[in-house]
Specification:
- This protein is α+β, with helices and mostly antiparallel strands and 455 residues long.
- The protein folds into three domains: 165 residues, no CATH class; 108 residues, Pdz3 Domain (Roll), CATH 2.30.42; 72 residues, PDZ domain (Pdz3 Domain, Roll).
- Helices cover 43% and strands 22% of the residues.
- Strands 5-4-6-7 form a four-stranded antiparallel beta sheet. Strands 10-9-13-14 form a four-stranded antiparallel beta sheet.
- The two termini are 26 Å apart.
- Keywords: Hydrolase, Membrane, Metal-binding, Metalloprotease, Protease, Transmembrane, Transmembrane helix, Zinc.
- Its cofactor is Zn(2+).
């Protein structure tokens, strides 16, 4: 229920803001607005102050909205109101009205990112676990416990890495742009600084998806390989393991972090049996060797070993927040970065350099909306800002049924001095609808595939 309500709230906010941009600009340009609708289909709620004023309605199907303006192409217009018709307005006014919707979404994103930055979020600290062996991160020299402090931008400037989420963003951006990324690292205590360069240019944009960091080999946020609660009667207790034991190695192989320890435990399976392991642990400053015989469990047709104990200490979090003006700058910068990245990804998907699996639809949006609401207000505002940028960018694409398509019509009119003919307009609209249906179908397919674990 939370997911559904969060999704409906997200869609309602974005639609209202988008259509409000069209509405306010239309009024500013002297165009009479007949109806402001949130949703399509049967009217559920209606309000109109006077018979001559704008009618505001909420309809049954909430996946969209529209602003209906007085227009001689859509019906008869009384001569006394002809000067308020949309089609009678100069080209500049019509273009401003059309562009105001996407612009409102981008302005909203700036505001939302700024407010989220002012509130602050608790995010994983950019202290990394052990990289995957022989991966890009491993070859670059990254090690367990490395604390990523900064990244180098293309112009040579450095930008502070405040959290693991920041690191994910700059790695993704560099991969999409096909360039290497230099990171400034220290140890977990902030000492021994050094630089490493990730050779991301060799990956290609098709690698950009939810599993990008795993492909690069960057580990999860660092968690010390220390045992938490040991379940009575389980394999860990029978082996003599205790809460607070720090695991040094398993079968002679060093254990650097909790992620590697969990992986080593789960993989201790040979055929239909769990494999005993020789653990070396540190307890009270002394090292000791213990034989651990895990138990074998099966879930969803897969077998793995388990020791019945909590593995790893909680990862460290940091509060990321911004001051009043710093938050505004952050909002503008992040909106620009997300918009630019979205456009570049769409372009690369179009020419086949990026996977169409990156297209997301309503199911993914609903899922993330529900998750972000449960995490807290600042997380939800950040998610809402991200979707608002995406909506603004999408509507500016030069597809006939979108705002960007109408702007292309006006560009043609401005260059040639005449509008597009009705015949061509009809053809372009039909083509635009076909393209949008294909995109929506792909996005919905990707949503379903993600939920079924096919992607």
């Amino acid at each position: 229920m939370i997911t559904v309500l969060a999704f409906l709230l997200t869609i309602a906010i974005l639609i209202v803001v988008h259509e409000w941009g069209h509405y306010r600009m239309a009024l500013a340009c002297g165009v009479k607005v007949l109806r402001f609708s949130v949703g399509f289909g049967q009217v559920l709620w209606r309000r109109q102050r006077t018979p001559d004023s704008t009618e505001f309605v909420v309809c049954a199907l909430p996946l969209g909205g529209y602003v209906r303006m007085l227009d001689e192409r859509e019906g008869a217009v009384p001569p006394a109101l002809a000067h308020q018709a949309f089609n009678r307005k100069p080209l500049r006014s019509r273009a401003l009205i059309v562009a105001a919707g996407p612009a409102a979404n981008l302005v909203l994103a700036v505001a939302l990112y700024a407010v989220a930055g002012w509130i602050g979020t608790d995010e994983p600290k950019a202290v990394l676990g052990a990289p995957v062996a022989a991966s890009l991160a491993d070859r670059a020299g990254m090690r367990a416990g490395d604390w990523v402090q900064a990244a180098q931008e293309p112009d040579g400037d450095t930008v502070e890495i405040r959290s693991y989420n920041d690191l994910r963003w700059y790695v993704t951006d560099a991969t999409v742009h096909g360039r290497d990324l230099t990171l400034q690292l220290t140890d977990a205590q902030g000492h021994r600084p050094r630089d490493v360069t990730l050779s991301l240019a060799e990956l290609g944009s098709r690698s950009v998806d939810a599993g990008l960091l795993q492909k690069i080999g960057i580990g999860l946020p660092y968690s010390e390989p220390v045992l938490g609660r040991v379940i009575p009667g389980g394999p860990a207790e029978r082996a003599g393991l205790r809460t607070g034991d720090s695991v040094l190695s398993i079968d002679g192989e060093p254990v650097f972090d909790a992620a590697r320890l969990r992986q080593r435990i789960r993989s201790a399976v040979r055929g239909d049996a769990a494999v005993p392991m020789k653990w070396r642990v540190e307890r009270g400053g002394q090292a000791m060797d213990l034989m651990v015989e895990p138990t074998l469990v099966e879930e969803q047709g897969k077998r793995f070993a388990r020791i019945e104990a909590e593995v790893g200490r909680p990862i460290e979090f940091v509060t990321v927040s911004y001051g009043p003006w710093e938050g505004v700058v952050y909002g503008m910068r992040r909106t620009w970065e997300v918009a630019a990245l979205s456009l570049r990804m769409l372009g690369k998907m179009l020419i086949g350099e990026a996977s169409i699996k990156n297209l997301s639809g309503p199911l993914t949006i609903a899922d993330f909306a529900g998750q972000s609401v449960q995490l807290g207000l600042s997380y939800y505002l950040g998610f809402l800002a991200l979707v608002s940028v995406s909506l603004g960018v999408l509507n500016l694409l030069p597809l006939p049924v979108l705002d960007g398509g109408h702007l292309m019509y006006y560009l043609f009119e401005g260059v040639t001095g005449r509008p597009i003919s009705d015949a061509w307009l009809d053809r372009l609209q039909r083509g635009g609808v076909a393209i949008m249906l294909v995109m929506m179908s792909l996005a919905l397919y990707n949503d379903v595939a993600r939920f079924l674990g096919l992607h």
